[in-house]
Amino acid sequence: MPEPTAPALIIDGLIRDVGPIPALDGRMKRIISGVYLTAQFGQVTALLGANGAGKTTTIECAQGLQRRDGGTISLLGEDPDKPSAALRARVGVMLQDGGLPPSAHPLPLLRHVAHMYESPRSVDELADRLGIRAFADTAIRRLSGGQKQRVALAASLVGNPEVLFLDEPSAGLDPQARRMVFELIRELRDEGLAIVLTTHLLDDAQKLADYVYIVDAGATVAAGTVAQLLSQATSAEAQRTVTFEAPPGLDPAAALRRELSVSQTRPGSYSVTGPLEPSDLLELATWWAAVGVMPTSLHLASRSLEDVFLALSGTELR
Ligand SMILES: Nc1ncnc2c1ncn2[C@@H]1O[C@H](COP(=O)(O)OP(=O)(O)OP(=O)(O)O)[C@@H](O)[C@H]1O
C-alpha cells in the first residue's frame, strides 16, 4: 500500500517508441520522449496538448495498456506493466473510443459491470446523475457520441475506483451534458479521487484542472496550476487587452503609449492591446473625459492559457 499522502500516479521520463515505420526505412519512431506528471488524490490533473502531442499514449502507458520503452511509472505504488490483481479494481478508465459492446443496452451493461466489483457504486445513482435513463432502452450502437461518452464515464466509475483516467471527457457532449459531467468530476475530486484527464481544450483545463501538465511533441513542456501557468509569462510578454464600446470614429491611439496597439474591430468597438499598466487605464479614462465619451461597455482581459501554450510550443490548440 502506498502512503495515504503519496501521489496516486507518478510518471517520470516516459519514453515510447513505435514501429518499425516503413517511411523511416524500417526504423522505430520515438513518439514520447520525456513526459513527466504527478497526480495527487483529491485533485484533477490535466494533460493538455494539441492533437498528436502524446496524451493518449501517455495515459495508456500509465494504465499498462501500452508498454513503455523508458522512464518509470508508479500507479498507486505499483508498476502498471506488472500490476497486482488488486490494481485493476482500484483504477477506472474512460478511453476515447469508449470500448463499449455495441449491442448492449446501457443499464443492463452497467449492472453487469457492477457485479464484477466488490464495492460498486450505485448504478441507479450514476444513471440519474449522467442523464442515462433517457436513452436506457437504446442499444449502444444507436447512441449519439455524447450519449456513449456518458455511458462510458458511468462504466469507468461503477467499480468505485480511487484513480480515474478520462481521455477527452467532454468530447461530443452538448453544453448541458458537459455541465453534468463537469459537476460529477468536481464531486468525485472532492470525494478524494485522483482524476487524470487529457484534453486539447483549454477551456476544459481552465474549468476543471487543479494542476495542468502541458505536453508538446511527446514531452512535458510546462506544469503548474492554471494561475501559475498564467503568471509564468514575464511582464514584458504579458499582453492585456481593454475593449470598449463608444461612438465610432474616435482616435484613442493619440492619448496612449506607442507600445499599445489600438484597433477598431467594428465601428464603435475599440480594442487596446499590449503591456497595459494601471497608468494606461488612467490615460484612457482621462481621454474619455476630455472627448466627453462614456463607454457603453468596458472589458479588461489578461493573458490566457492559450497564449502561454502558444508561447511554449508554437502550436495552437483548437
Ligand atoms: N502505433 C503508432 N505508430 C505510429 N505513430 C503513432 C502510433 N501511435 C501513436 N502515434 C503517433 O504518436 C503521436 C501521439 O499520439 P497520441 O494519440 O498519444 O496523441 P494525442 O495527444 O492523444 O492526440 P489526440 O488529441 O489527437 O488524441 C501522434 O502523432 C500519433 O500519430
UniProtKB/TrEMBL annotation:
<keyword id="KW-0813">Transport</keyword>
<dbReference type="InterPro" id="IPR017871">
    <property type="entry name" value="ABC_transporter-like_CS"/>
</dbReference>
<dbReference type="Pfam" id="PF00005">
    <property type="entry name" value="ABC_tran"/>
</dbReference>
<dbReference type="InterPro" id="IPR003439">
    <property type="entry name" value="ABC_transporter-like_ATP-bd"/>
</dbReference>
<dbReference type="GO" id="GO:0016887">
    <property type="term" value="F:ATP hydrolysis activity"/>
</dbReference>
<protein>
    <submittedName>
        <fullName>ABC transporter ATP-binding protein</fullName>
    </submittedName>
</protein>
<keyword id="KW-0067">ATP-binding</keyword>
<dbReference type="GO" id="GO:0005524">
    <property type="term" value="F:ATP binding"/>
</dbReference>
<feature type="domain" description="ABC transporter">
    <location>
        <begin position="15"/>
        <end position="242"/>
    </location>
</feature>
<keyword id="KW-0046">Antibiotic resistance</keyword>
<keyword id="KW-0547">Nucleotide-binding</keyword>
<dbReference type="InterPro" id="IPR003593">
    <property type="entry name" value="AAA+_ATPase"/>
</dbReference>
<dbReference type="GO" id="GO:0005886">
    <property type="term" value="C:plasma membrane"/>
</dbReference>
<dbReference type="GO" id="GO:0046677">
    <property type="term" value="P:response to antibiotic"/>
</dbReference>
<dbReference type="InterPro" id="IPR050763">
    <property type="entry name" value="ABC_transporter_ATP-binding"/>
</dbReference>
<dbReference type="InterPro" id="IPR027417">
    <property type="entry name" value="P-loop_NTPase"/>
</dbReference>
